[in-house]
Amino acid sequence: xxxxxxxxxxxxxxxxxxxxxxxxxxxxxxxxxxxxxxxxxxxxxxxxxxxxxxxxxxxxxxxxxxxxxxxxxxxxxxxxxxxxxxxxxxxxxxxxxxxxxxxxxxxxxxxxxxxxxxxxxxxxxxxxxxxxxxxxxxxxxxxxxxxxxxxxxxxxxxxxxxxxxxxxxxxxxxxxxxxxxxxx
Length: 184
Prior knowledge:
- By secondary structure, this protein is α+β, with helices and mostly antiparallel strands.
- The protein has four helices and seven strands; from the N terminus they run βαβββαβαββα.
- The chain has helices spanning 29-44, 107-126, 140-145, 167-173; strands at 10-14, 49-55, 58-71, 87-98, 130-134, 149-150, 161-165.
- The protein has a seven-stranded mixed β-sheet with strand order 1-2-3-4-5-7-6, sandwiched between helices.
- The longest helix is centred in the middle third of the chain and has 20 residues, at 107-126.
């Protein structure tokens, strides 16, 4: 049994052909098959991008991103943006998986926080306000713990859509300035 990892023990790398992912095994065959059979193909076709999470030289998890939208009507009233659009740009977490030997060790949380950080960075370049995920029912609590909200009309779906407004995270990351007066 592996102990819980601290953030400085894990690193994120862009998935490339040179990485061997053949031994990765999460509890989901669908997520395993995607990484081993489709992730690189999708990346070459500019459909999605996958990042691997490593501890030393061991693959412990991965996250895949693509773009999407969220409808204004699906966002809770208090989070609707005052712009004349019916849809908002979003980064979608298309896949997020942890190797079953490393579950409950902080890998999933590390990947999710890295995803939020990447989305904040991307938003400075292309404009993107939300992160969305089509969660598995058993993962809803995990995402809610990190601030994601369910789209009400999808809450009973097999993979309900959840979203996170990244504006508060961006605001929190801005450097705090203190007025020091005129230095001239």
